[in-house]
Design goal:
Length: 175
């Protein structure tokens, strides 16, 4: 083995030193999981609810294809939350904790959509979000509808979380 292979240039030492300083400064900061998950989930849920309400107002509430676009808001929130969380989390537990972060965002956004639907169904029952073309005539119908909406958002959010985590798993931490 040649001794020249072990020589490190001054620029390499400087770049490693700055990376080490960045790592140490980030280690001293704690990522606030709950406040970030609550804010991202609430924003995503509010935007999804507003989008669904807009579809109901313009008469396109029965279009499954248009309803599907509400998930873009959830995917955006998941992407922001997971990528921000990744910068503060050690790589050994990133995947497990990333699933938790995605679950928190998803559950909070699903709850926000359910609450928005509850408020809309009390104030303007004709504009409440419907599922499976079910007319809401009883509390049972309403519970079926909000349960289906909650479960649908939960499943889609967890699938989106898993896709983001698989994508980020092999990437360098600063990307």
């Amino acid at each position: 083995m040649n001794n020249l292979d072990n020589i490190v240039t001054e620029s390499q030492l400087t770049s490693n030193k700055t990376e080490m300083q960045k790592t140490k400064s980030m280690a001293n900061k704690e990522y606030k999981l709950w406040p970030n998950a609550i804010s991202l989930g609430t924003i995503a849920g509010f935007l999804m609810g507003a989008y669904l309400l807009t579809l109901q107002i313009v008469g396109a509430g029965d279009s499954i294809g248009l309803k599907f676009f509400k998930y873009l808001f959830l995917l955006f929130a998941l992407g922001m939350g997971i990528s921000a969380y990744r910068k503060y989390n050690p790589t050994s537990s990133f995947f497990k904790n990333g699933i938790a972060m995605g679950a928190y965002i998803t559950i909070i956004s699903a709850l926000a959509v359910v609450v928005i639907d509850l408020v809309i169904s009390i104030i303007l029952p004709d504009l409440s979000f419907n599922k499976f073309n079910l007319e809401i005539n009883s509390p049972g119908d309403f519970l079926t509808t909000i349960g289906a909406i909650f479960f649908e958002i939960l499943v889609f959010g967890m699938i989106g979380t898993f896709i983001f985590l698989q994508y980020l798993k092999g990437k360098p931490k600063n990307s």
